[in-house]
Design brief:
The protein is of the alpha+beta class. It has one domain. The protein has eight helices and 13 strands. The chain is globular and about 55 Å long. It starts with about 20 loop residues before the first strand and ends with a strand.
Length: about 280
């Protein structure tokens, strides 16, 4: 069952009896720091089981450079050509973003908006007696022509607070061979810093190594202290093929791209009826 909507208000700042300011580098945040920041995990995000929804999504942006078929063939090329390192992760992430931009091209043109991809934006946000400081790996900004041009020329997170319609934040997994779920705290730290800096009560994001994606929702509650977060199950682009050899799954490619496109358009909203996810029953 979907949770009731909460009033829109900025992320609540934490309080501390210790008057000393504590700096939390985003690059090294672990679960202990997430607990200290009073972030609490709630229901899991579960994918809706609606196979009929995928086909129209695959047709979106069919006449653009990054069609659904181009994305699939490109990821197949990467899978057989590029080694699995932190640096190569970006080649997979970039491809998903390019496909999401193609899917949104028609609606963006109608709205006279455009997307801008920001890399490694610095952020520093104070929450109570803590300072969250570091870099946001990926920021996908939706804005009008003037704001987009300004952001391309001088990409600063502070500009998004008053000038941007929407912005999705994605964290890149930093450790190859470490389960993606173990790196969720760093993604939550980045999202929390962005929410505080932009004064948003709800913020969506993702954590990925390119091949596997975890989607995240962070929000404050009007009737409860602290901040809650929701984590999806892993969505893997690479699955078992013939003879159990790993191969790129075309359906999973389309699903991840569609989720990213939808989350860009609803980046500061709670989970709704038309979403790709629902809250688990427990």
């Amino acid at each position: 069952m979907l949770q009731p909507k909460v009033p829109d208000r900025p992320i609540r700042q934490i309080t501390s009896q210790d008057d000393r300011i504590k700096v939390f580098p985003l690059s090294s945040i672990q679960q202990d720091e997430i607990n200290a920041l009073d972030l609490r995990e709630c229901q899991t995000l579960e994918l809706h089981g609606d196979p009929a929804r995928l086909s129209p999504e695959q047709e979106r942006g069919a006449n653009e450079l990054w069609s659904n078929d181009v994305l699939y063939r490109h990821l197949c090329l990467l899978h057989g050509l590029v080694t699995q390192t932190e640096a190569s992760t970006r080649t997979w992430i970039d491809a998903i973003f390019f496909r999401a931009a193609a899917m949104l091209s028609s609606s963006l043109a109608e709205q006279r908006k455009q997307l801008v991809l920001g890399l490694k934006l610095s952020v520093s946000a104070t929450v109570g007696q803590a300072v969250l400081k570091g870099f946001i790996d990926y920021t996908i900004l939706k804005a009008g022509e003037t704001t987009a041009a300004s952001f391309l020329r001088d990409p600063r997170l502070g500009k998004l607070a008053e000038e941007s319609d929407l912005a999705l934040f994605v964290a890149e997994a930093k450790e190859v061979g470490v389960p993606l779920g173990h790196q969720v705290p760093q993604a939550l730290g980045q999202m929390y810093a962005c929410a505080a800096a932009l004064k948003k009560s709800i913020i969506r994001g993702a954590l990925t190594d390119g091949r596997t994606w975890i989607f995240l929702l962070l929000k404050s509650n009007a009737d409860e202290p602290g901040v809650t977060y929701h984590v999806s199950h892993e969505v893997s682009i690479v699955g078992a093929g013939p003879h159990l050899r790993p191969q790129v799954d075309p359906k999973a490619c389309a699903i991840v791209a569609a989720i990213v496109a939808y989350w860009i358009e609803h980046s500061f909203e709670d989970i709704g009826d038309e979403d790709w996810f629902k809250f688990s029953s427990q």
